[in-house]
Structure formats: structure tokens, C-alpha cells
Amino acid sequence: MGFKCGIVGLPNVGKSTLFNALTKTAAAQAANYPFCTIEPNVGEVAMPEPRLNVLAAIAGSKEIIPTRMNFVDIAGLVRGASKGEGLGNQFLATIRECDAIAYVLRCFDNDDITHVEGRVDPLSDLETVETELMLADLESLEKRIVNLEKKAKQNDKDAKQTLALCIEAKKLLDMGKPARLYMPDLEDKKAWDMLQLLTAKPVLYVCNVDEDAASAGNDYSAKVDAHAKSENAQSVTICAQMEADLAALSDDEAAEYLEMNGLSEPGLNRLIRSGYDLLGLATYFTIGPKEARAWTIPKNCPAPKAAGVIHGDFEKGFIRAETIAYDDFVSFKGEQGAKEAGKMRLEGKEYQVRDGDVMHFRFAN
Q: Which contacts qualify for 245-253: CB closer than 8 Å, 24 or more apart?
């Protein structure tokens, strides 16, 4: 299990450059004109996971397999996208298929790179993009409400539930607020998710700065960060061009380049981890001499469902899970040492897998 995160923003803010760096490819053409990305580009990237390397070294694993996730480079939105302006309809549909959205905001001055609105103002850019998504959601809701009202009058229970959620979402949108600010009750969560509202998706703000601001940010990124904090969201400051340059270097050259710029790790690592946190995901490990592997699960995932990520039969026939916490595996130098120290636990069906657990599942065929 991974996730699909859409990279969204106005034209010429650095989306494709960021995507190229993420995937370490030049699959997305980065050019200085709107709509250079004509088809959505999908790239699979490995989750930066230092713990996996540590575990593999202790176990002498021959192969290391990280968990992976997808990023989608979506062409720039412009005013009127919700009405089909630019390439609006096509890309709004692509956003709908994503689990989360990374809003890339231009936070740098450069006269050589044109801005579609003729000025650099990341909060205004954010408002433009979000307004188009809200307008698209409103149009979708208004159409649904008409049909749902007819079904609700016929005492359709599901229609009544969905209609109530549509009305709540529309109230927020009418006030100029995104649907993600609505918190559905547990019994309504599935129906809410099925609405597939663009503005209900979790968002991450990505401040694309110039190289000089890569480590500390600048006035533009500070404004975005303050906005993110005001709605309890996350923001990441990154220099997309620097990340693209880093992707082309050897490990030693990249480490030297980072040190020269006052950075301890690539900004992409922070971006990917923030996206992971955004969706409430966690990682557990299976470790052995053949391979060390990371697996993605939702936080607080029951052990049988975690086992099912490996294979459906593991979930169906789940008996128990032999579990060692990451710190214990490292401290006692592997599975045998952890066993001898009494640090291996036998967990049943009710156990909620914790981030970093080293797991071995027992199941009935």
C-alpha cells in the first residue's frame, strides 16, 4: 500500500522540475510556458527509510526493498479551470483520482521565468488554485443534491445520509472554505469519502524557493507557513531546481553539495515524509537473510489487515504475529538477541501495529 499524491499549482511554479527530481527522471518536460505538461505524469518513488538499511545490515539481508508511493505531475491550472479554461476539465479529473494534493507555490523572484498572473504572490496563487477546485466541487454538489432530494423523499436511507453530507460540504464552499475543514462522524466517513470532493483531500503546501533560501526559507515561504499553521496543515520549503541538480549527482557529490548549502538531507526526503504523515500512514518491516522489506499501512492498523498487505491469505488465515520493536531489534542486534532478551511479543488479532515494528506472521493455510 502506498498513496498517490497530485502535484498541483499554476503554470511555471516548478511542478515538473519537482516531479523530475522526485522520480530522478526527465519524464516531465520542464519548459518556460504554460501547459508544457500535456499528459499527467505518474512517477513511483521509494520512501526514504534509514531504519530499513540499519535492519538489513544487522540481518545481513541480500536485498533491500523500500515501500513506494506515486506522485502525479498535473499540468498548471489557471483561472476558469473549473469551467474548462486551459486544460481544466482533464486535470480536475486527474486530481480527483489522487489521495492527497501537494500545492506547489512559487516563492522565488526570477524575471527570466514568466508568471501566468504577472507577479509573485504565493498566497494569491493558492487562492486561485483552491477557488477553481471549490467551484468544481460546488458544481458537482449542486447536480447531486437535486437527484438526492428526489431519492430522499422516497425514504432512501443512503440518499438521506449522502444528501446531509452534500449540504454540509456546500455550506463550507459557499463561505469560500474547502470541504476538508468538515469532520464527518465515524459512521459517515465512508459516505463522505465516496463524494470524492477535490477540496476534501488532504493538502501539503510546497514552497518552491531559490537556492539561497533552501535552508532557511524567505519572506514568501514564511507567509505560506503561517497560512498552513492557521489551518493546522503542513508546509515544506524546497528548492526544486536544487533537488533536480542533486538527483543527477553521485552520493558523495550530493552529500558535499548539501553540506555547502547548509542542508542535512535532500528536501525531497522531507516532502515525501510529510506526504506520508499527511495520509496517516505508518511502516512495518519484515527482515530476513534474503530480503529486508518495508510495508505501508494506515496508522493503528489491526495486525490481520497489516498481514494482508503482504498477501490476502495472510489476513484470512491469521493466527498471530511475532513482533519486535525497531529499537529492540537494533539494541539486541537482531531477532535472536531480541528473543533471548524477552523482547519478542506474540500479538493477536486485536493488536494495532506500531510504526517500526518488525513482524513475522503466523497463518493457517
A: 246/21, 247/20, 247/21, 247/24
